[in-house]
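hi support,

uploading two proteins for the ticket. first:
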Amino acid sequence: MSAGMRPSPPPRKSIMAAGLNLQPQTVNGRLKLDLSNQGLTSIPEEVFDITDLEFLDVSRNKLTSIPEAIGRLQKLSRLDAYSNMLTCLPQAIGSLQKLTHLYVYRNKLANLPPGIEKLQKLTLLSIYDNQLTEVPSGVCSLPNLEVLSVSNNKLSTFPPGVEKLQKLRKLFIKDNQLTEVPSGVCSLPNLEVLNVSNNKLSTFPPGVEKLQKLKELGIYDNQLTEVPSGVCSLPNLEVLNVYNNKLSTFPPGVKCHNNKLSTFPPGVEKLQKLKELGIYDNQLTEVPSGVCSLPNLEKLSAYNNKLSTFPPGVEKLQKLRELYIYDNQLTEVPSGVCSLPNLEMLGVYNNKLSTFPPGVEKLQKLRELYIYDNQLTEVPSGVCSLPNLEMLSVCNNKLSTFPPGVEKLQKLRKLYINDNQLTEVPSCVCSLPNLEVLSVGPNPIRRLPDDVTRLARLKTLSVPGCQFDEFPRQVLQLKTLEELYAGGCKFDIVPDEVGNLQHLWHLSLDINLLRTLPSTMSHLHNLRVVRLNKNKFDTFPEVLCELPAMEKLNIRNNNITRLPTALHRADKLKDLNVSGNPMSYPPQEVRKQGTGAIMAFLKQEAEKDERILSAFNRLSVRMSQTQWKPLARSLGLSNRAVDAIKVSAPDDVPDQVYQTLVQWREKEGEAATLSALEQHLRDLDFQQLADQLFRAPRPEGAVAVTKGDSSDSRTSALTARVQPMVRSEVTRAHNAVFLSYQWDHQDKVLLLHDRLQERGYSCWMDIKQMGGGDSLYEMMDKGIRGAKVVVSCVTPPYAESKNCRDEVALAHTLKTPIIPVMLEKTTWPPPGPMSIPFAQLIYINMAKGQDEDPWKGVLFEQLKKKSTT
């Protein structure tokens, strides 16, 4: 072996403890063991056997203590134990002679152990966010300490001797209860950052001018009445935060906002390295001329003062990137502003500007320009020659025209031209490929340009207060639209095509003439915020109940008297405002408790409604013509009402019965209960009907057996198959089971409907033979889209029915699980269009003569597997 070479260490054996890998890794030349974020309540003892460990990370766990055994890790140079529940540190910490970094912030430490001064190599001590009432004096005896952070504790004093920390570069003692800054702080020659904000300081020690390397000084949120003049003699100062004190005068410096300054003394030009100057939220009437002699200034904030003029020489600020002088009384923008080659953001809004200086086109790096809330009658044409402009706001001026050339702003993402006197949207705006936000209202604009549909990236469109004769139909082709604000336009119809705006999450249609909303709005699955204040709604738009993502609904000041119970299905709704309506339902005592109480009430009422309507459906297909009229008379319907029902549904006994029951419920209100209906049936001696309708509910999972019903066990098997698909969703999903069938087999399917509902499933089926037309397709679409599973009751006529084929096709397209049930012997898969969706599916055979229990062998396994995918 060559001289000077050392043999490689043998490979380290893998160490495991409690499922943890305790194998350290070499990171940046140090042996590190990372046990962070493991949910540990204690450190495994095996860790302390890794005696050559240099970096131990046990942060973000649930540790309440660190054992004294840590003293065995004599090579440890860094310990990360922050974000735990430590109440103390072991004394053995003081024996770690090689420790340079100690992070124990965000714990519950009330003190530090004695002997901390032994850590002579420590360069960083971070103990903020604890419960310390004092810093031990030993900390001031750490000769190599460079960073000390004790912020957010309960310190009221600081130990003497801080001046001994001659290598200290950063000192953070903010968010405590200090009444004074240790005088020794001003004798730290290498200090670069000092933050003593949010304490109870009323004075600052003399000698701050000796901190010649200081770059950042934070003394905000205190009770200072003055800042020492020595601050002006800090040649390297870049950031000075002194806001929220009680200053009446101020030496030259930065970040002196939110005080009550009315004057600004000279001398600021001495701060030659200053990068940021904040003098906003004061009462300044002028900016000191010395500000324009700061060659390194990058950001100047002088907004919300009383400035009427700006000092000359602003063009000398060649490094300035951000200039904010809004909320003042300026009548003109300093001409030198247009000679700032690095300017990226310019905010001059809410002044008294009537013109803009020439030369704005020279600001080739400008990205954001805010000139709204002024008195401009035109936008300077040079604006259209800014290749990097991304945001332009000229709203609330007196613009009647817009300069040509807007289409050259190829990077423009946001354009605000609202609150002016524009009569049209410039057509060239439609050629902006990256435009995401367009705000044009209110303005006296009567229509949007047809080419607005070319804005392929538009996410937000705001047109409130425009003078449209109808809903702007161009909007309906903006497929990327996420927010639409169209209040105060006075249109009375929202087109069906609004349902195509699949990305829409905010829809504001306040102050229009709307009485209804299109059912296609139910397709807006991402819609979270809906505003419909001050329209003409007499009834609550039912389609709002079908918005699964809706979180906020504001429908104030209409003429709505009742909320539908179906609104409970919008189970993410947390903010509902219906004030200003003559509301009687829910009761006032419920409404005044807020949205949560309203939704709970509606859900309870909906469950009651569903039980009643289910009973109405079951009774309507079981009652004969001779039984119907006696029931109608018993329920108190007039002869005129009975005759009207006969005319509306001739020869359709189920519909006649259903209408009778609905009218009885409307007439009797809360008194129309199932118990009352049962009593009417028994009084008429319709005992069998009453028994069928109101038989006692069976325990969950029990098989429902009706005398003479040979297919009931197969019904139970289907129930079992549906259960794993639907049960977990039934409490929040409406119409969880869609029953697809051909009308000739309604009795058998109705029995299945009853069995499923008895077990708590919500079902949809066409009870009243609606036929065709738009209403049927609308109901079919609504039912299948809301379903978790479709049960197809297959017979030869079912396979030939156009409506049934459409139902299967829609379910297949939407990828809604389909369970085929063979009610009559049929070729499998059925011939024709159904063969494709059914080809790979296993059916349950409920035809006569089949096994009573289909849940056997391979079939059971296949069905079980399908129902859990």
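and the second one:
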Amino acid sequence: MKKIGLLILTLCFAVFMHAQDRITSRTKSIDYLNPTEYEIGGVQISGIQYLDPNVLVHLTGLQVGDIIMIPGDEITKAVNKLWDQGLFSEVKISLEKVINNKAFIDIYLQERPRLSKYTFSGIKKSEVDDIKEKVKLVRGSQVTENTIITTKSVATKYFIDKGFYNVEVDIEQEPDTSLVNHVILKIKINKNNRIKINEIYFSGNDTIGYEKKWYNKHRDPDKLAESRLKRAMKDTKKKRWYSVFKTSKFVENKFEEDKENIIAKYHELGFRDAHIVYDSIARHDDKTINLYIGIDEGKKYYFRDISWIGNTKYPSEVLSQVLGIKKGDVYNQKLLDEKLLYDPQSVFSLYQDNGYLFSNISPVEIYAENDSLDIQMRVYEGKQARINRVSIAGNTRTNDRVVMREVRTVPGSLYKRSEVQRTIREFAQLGYFDPEKLNVDFNPDPAKGTVDLEYIVEEKPSDQIELSGGWGAGMIVGTLGVSFNNFSLKNIFNPKAYRPLPSGDGQRLSLRAQASGLWFQNYSFMFVEPWLGGNKPNSLTTSVYHSIMTNGAREPEERTSFNVTGAGLGLGKRLEWPDDYFTLYNELSYRFYDINNYTGFLYKQGQSNNFSFKTALSRHSSGPNPIFPTTGSSFSVSVELTPPYSLFSNKDYSTIPSTEKYKWIEYHKWKFSGSWFTTLVGSKSGDSRALVLLTKFEAGILGHYNSKLGPSPFEGFQLGGDGLYGYNLYGRETIGLRGYTNNSLTPNDGGNVYDKFTVELRYPLSLNPTATLYAIVFAEAGNAWFDVKKFDPFDVKKSAGVGVRIYMPMIGMLGVDWGYGFDEIKGVTGANGSQFHFVIGQTF
């Protein structure tokens, strides 16, 4: 029995010892000097919380069944692959156990902390919002080294672009005690001083200063050269106290663009080979730097022979005449490009306006000798293209037919670039679309010789609300008005069309009320149908209005009043000759004046009637942006007249009372107005900033048929001030002239003739359609006379000043001007000198 027990004990001990040979604990030491070959029996991931372990195992490249050396290259590669992900703060691979030479591996990973929240300090809220938009940090995402580097880089670049070259960005990670393995990023920013430009130094600009015009022939060549190059740099300007519209901050990418502008300026002056040989930046002090630019001008070139090849439609002589560059002219790359391609009267436009959509013109320098260049114009004419299909996209509010009736490119007709441009202009003039977003997509088919056109528009708010207060006749006058400029009358009884009002048919409905308690009230209504019948651009205008002026007495028996009731009906027609910019407008109007014991007029008691006919011929080609025109002109000449009642009457007008004289008002009124828009600097297209010169002249005269009756006390003109005179009962037109008080240039008995001259410089500060903003500098002159015989067009009152305008679609034009009137007005104290004027809905 004892022998049997001893045998069993011996067998158990043998089994135990064999098991020890097969199982090695994780504490088994690894001999790094003698790597051992193993088969991978298993791979497990530990320590992770959010990531997928299967994906991580696959990422290591370690697979069950692989034969590897431990230690060896496979383990090293697996560790490096995990580190390369940037997701872990700790990576550790250990041998868990070995069974029958199969290694079971454990990979311990410590995930990087995740973002719980982040804060900014040291900057404004608007700057925080801008950086957040660019960085896009996501709560719950891992905070990696790349996260920190990217955030710091974006914030730094943001402020460098704004001129803060000494900006400091520091990012701290603070553990969030409320969440496991989460951190709070504290982004601390110190902008320091904005770096501005103290001075710009040029070298090598030895010749450009001698390229003089008549107006600068006496200037020092070195100073002239420096001035020309500095003006060529649009956004890199030295620090000056008077710089208002251009800052002197240094922005590197703008500096690079301005270096190209310098070379472009040299090319304009004939220096084709000019190039910049070096540029450098040196600190001047803590707030400013100096820029150094070295230039190699090269020699000046001239055009010699310009030849044409490939042109069959137009003779070379015609193309050379359109190009307008002659032998011996200074080489000017900008002028060549404009005359050849970009100018509305360019050679390319000549082809494009005759259907040659696929045409192309390439200028090639074929020979250069000394300072002369021979240019060969290689013309590819291609087929004449016809318009196949025209469509509109983006008109979410305006009906297709309202937009399409302004389209000048008709399917089946020859393609003309000028008609495409005219269509874009007409879309802008509607006032329903953002002028900056108007575009056209071309889909040409050269094989068929056709093109599809899709006009792209973007709706903008066009309705307007007027809420204002003004001062006139010693009282405050409040105004409330609404204008629905894209109204739909036919849907007025359709409940589904109210969004909030029926719209999309291009009609205009205006309601306006003015009041100053019992003293003054005015109510008006106007409706305009621009396409009467829907087939031709013939407009219909109807208007009704009623005005009441009293002494303010509450008791009816004590109240005096001056009441005006009127109505008008007008028809307009777009003409085709001399061109379709012309319109003819005719209007019949009637006004009834009811005067009850009113002491402020020619007679206290009575009634007067004014039945008149008005015709106006106008031409409006200004544009392309109707809010800020850069080119074109606007002219209008009109005459308004009544029947000559007195010529058919046997009454002695020298003896009858005024109530009888003016029971039926008679007169003839003539007016002229002309405005010219000229782009002085910048693009004429209206899609970028440009300095624009507005020159304007206007004049008017009120005549009479019967010398015994004399001028009418009604109608006429009142001149001076902001043009927003609080009320107008006598039918007189209010003409603004800044720098003087309201109505101060009007004779006591009224103005029967006037003239006015305006010169205005305009510069846009913002062309955003939600708020178009521009600054102005103006000079004006004008006067009014009672006696037409004393009219002297040069006996005028002069003024000058500055102002700003802002146009918001829902409100219209607003602005404020400061003007200084240079001439005293006899009998009116304080009428001239320094004057502020508020502008509502007008542009003088």
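thanks. also noticed: The chain has six domains: 22-111, 114-190, 196-296, 302-380, 386-456, 632-844.
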